[in-house]
Structure formats: C-alpha cells, structure tokens
Amino acid sequence: MWLLDKFLGRLIKRGRLTVTDADGADYRYGDGDADFPDVAVRLTEPGTARAIASDPRLGAAEAYMDGRMRVERGEIRDLITLIRKNQQWEKTGPLAPRGVFKRARQATRQRLDHFNWRRRSKRNVAHHYDLSDELFRLFLDEDMQYSCAYFEDPEMSLEAAQRAKVIHILAKLALKPGSRVLDIGSGWGGMALAIHRVTGGEVLGITLSEEQLEAARRRADDAGVADKVRFELADYRDVEGRFDRIVSVGMFEHVGPPNYNRFFRHCHDLLAENGVMLLHTIGRIGVPNGTDAFTSKYTFPGSYVPALSEIVPASEKAKLMATDIEMWRVHYAMTLEHWYDRTKAARDRIVELYDERFYRMWLFYLSGAGVSFRYGGTCNYQIQYVRRRDALPLTRDYLEREKARLRTIL
Q1: Domains and CATH numbers, the chain
Q2: pLDDT for 211-224, tens place per residue?
C-alpha cells in the first residue's frame, strides 16, 4: 500500500478520500473541501493497491470491474471526479508517462495501434458498436444519437439537446433541396434521415458496424425512404462519386493519425467543387497525446483523440478550407452524465444482457469520459470545410436563420 499511499498523497489535496486496504487499515487524503467529493473505497484483496499504483487508470478500472475495489461512500463517478478535479487541466500540465523509455514504448504502440488498416478498422468498430442494440437503446435518446448533444439550455432534456445538435450541424451544412449527401460513420441512421427530410435528396450513409447497418436500413424502410436514404457497410476509403455535402460525426476518432492525410484527400475528391463538409469529432484541448490503456483495451481499440494541431494541417494539405471552427467545451460532459444516469437506471437489464463486470466496466467508461470532458483535456471540435471560398454566405448570420428554418421541419 505504501506506493499507492504515496501516489494518492501527492494527488488528492482537496476534498476527501478514504481508502481501506485489504488488511483493514484506513488511509485518508485531502482537506475535506465541500466543493469536492467525499469518497470512501475498500480494497478487498491483497495486491490490489500495487496493481492500481503501477497503472492507475487501468488498474483502478479492473479492480472496480472485478469487485476488488468497492466504492462504499459515493459512487464511481464521484471517485473519478475527485481525482480529476484535483488535477484539472487548466491548472496542471497533461499527465504523461514518466521516463524516456516508457514514453518511447507508448509512442511505438500508439503508432501501431492507430494505423487502422481496413480489416483492423472493421474489427475495432465491431468491438464496440456491434454490441447489442438493446444496450444502446437503454441509455441513448430516442433517435439513437451516440455523440455529443448540444445543450442550448443546461436544463434541456437529452432528447431536446440531441435534436439541437442535429439542427446545429445541418445548419452548418447549408443544405439545398435535392442535395446529394454522404454521411461517413452513419451510426443508427438518425442524421441521414434528418438530412433527407430537409432536402428530399439522396443520402448515402456508410458504417463498419453490421448491427448499426441493419438498424439504420430498418429505419429507412419503416420511413418509406429506402430508395433515397441508403446505408452501406463500407470503408470511407472505398467510397466513389461526388457529393454536394459530406458530414462525419463521431467517426474521425477511429481514422488514426497515419491516415489523416489520406482521409482529407479522399474527402476533397468526393466533395463537389461548391460543396460543404462538416467534421464533428472528439478532440484534445492541448498538445497531442496517446490513448489510455483502459480505452484501448475495453471500449475503443484503435481509437485516437486528435489535437486541433493534428487535424488542420492534414486538411490544409488536401486544400480544404476550414471556414468555421467551433470548440464545444462541456457539452459532452453533460451528455455523458445523462447516459450514466440512464445506465444506472437500467442496471438489472444490462446485467441480464451481459454480466455485472460488464455493467461496472460501462459505468467506469461513461463516468471517466464525462469527467474528462468536464475537468480534463478533451472537448469536441466542429470544423466546416469548403473547396471554394464563395461556397457559403459572406457572414455567419445565415446559421441562425437556417437553424430557425430547420426547427420548423425537424
């Protein structure tokens, strides 16, 4: 316990954390500040403290998943909040691996993990998105939007905030009647169906998830628009043709830095000369950094959260003009808090679908991600691209006018 005790002593300065080791000894950290959580955890097996100290995020996650670490006062979200709020991004530098050799090993692993050849890309997507549709229906909104919602009012419901997100994105696309649109990473089809309702034109949605493909096609059939809104199991690298608009929401995180230049070159070639593209991605607020071990192992293998300094240079090389860059700071934190609460409410059904360990893993994933968006170094970026500088109105005033129009349609 001495190594974990030393680590927590340096880390927890505000709030209160009580750790009871497997031998029954209590260790207390923090000043009791009421603006920070008060959490108590119990380690139930010898060796758990050492496992956590040697790899804090993955070690704590697996100890919680296995029941070797139990949260006895508060809940797992409170524990992660306490830790991350004590290391708020604005007040500290990013936490990096210690030692040059450890940094080199991590950099090499990251390059290999993020190369994302076609076969690996599909396998990585299937790991997460081919889980049971019922699981996602238990915590997502009715439209099955599995990306950051847009809270125009903090008191908005999840459903209202996801609708606001769709409207915000469609306004930036400056859609025209009859537009031909490509949706890269189309999920369960909600965005593509909304675009068709606005334009009446053809929409092609592509995904690497067979579960999502089946659900999206079913939704298009049920809406009677399958002849206009098509969904295909396809890699973005294999799409051909020309599109008036391209939208990609929550997919760029799976492209991988070695493929950024190719991604944007292909989007440039697919986009009509006077077309508009909107890229919505999780991003890193600061400098580039690697993917943590828990995410790589349990939730999004092969994923990578890019810094803005990695996205824009790649798109510049493809001669795509970034006409609008917007940073969403805490919207995803609010979204994930809704998902976390809904997951807790659906505990019994999730355990029935999978097991208790999976349920705790999912809670850890949602709470860790939410806290990272609220106190850590992650955010969302929306970047609007054009090939021609006159493809959009002269000023941004059109966005609010377009959003008002879309609210009457969607």
Answers
A1: 2-86 (3.30.1050), 118-407 (3.40.50.150)
A2: 999 999 999 999 99
